[in-house]
Amino acid sequence: MANAPDRFELFLLGEGQQKVTTREDTRTPNTLYFVIEKEDHTIGNLIRMHLVKHPEVVFAAYRVPHPLVPNVELRVQTTGKITPKEAVQQVIQDLLHQLSTLGQNITREFELKRMAMEDGR
């Protein structure tokens, strides 16, 4: 495609580019916009799904502004007991823990299957 960026531009940050930037929503209290560079619907929807389950989050949504620009805009509003930044940090910590546990479980199952195959020789 003539307008498509080079593949490496879809996942490598540019010189001085930050992974996440924020800006305040001045129209709505306790609301921040997070722009996550070099990501797509996968991370946007994953974070949003967990944010809406958080008891202090009033609203969470994401969008990908343009299909050829690899970034996600996440909008988060909280009750005010915690900040949107704290809610996102808590959710990401929880997701990292879940992914770590999943990785350990997959590794354990793989090792069990490998040992069973070796015993069956």
Automatic annotation (TrEMBL):
Localization per record: Nucleus
Domain (DNA-directed RNA polymerase RBP11-like dimerisation): residue spans on this chain: 33-103
Keyword Nucleus: yes
GO cellular component: RNA polymerase II, core complex
Tree of life domain: Eukaryota
Signal peptide residues on this chain, from the entry's feature table: none
The organism of origin for this protein: Ascobolus immersus RN42
Lineage: Eukaryota, Fungi, Dikarya, Ascomycota, Pezizomycotina
GO molecular function: DNA binding; DNA-directed RNA polymerase activity; protein dimerization activity
A Pfam family that the UniProt record links to this protein: RNA_pol_L_2
Protein family membership: Belongs to the archaeal Rpo11/eukaryotic RPB11/RPC19 RNA polymerase subunit family.
Xref: Gene3D superfamilies: RNA polymerase, RBP11-like subunit
Protein name: RBP11-like subunits of RNA polymerase
Keywords, in A-Z order: DNA-directed RNA polymerase, Nucleus, Transcription
GO biological process: transcription by RNA polymerase II
Keyword Signal annotated: no
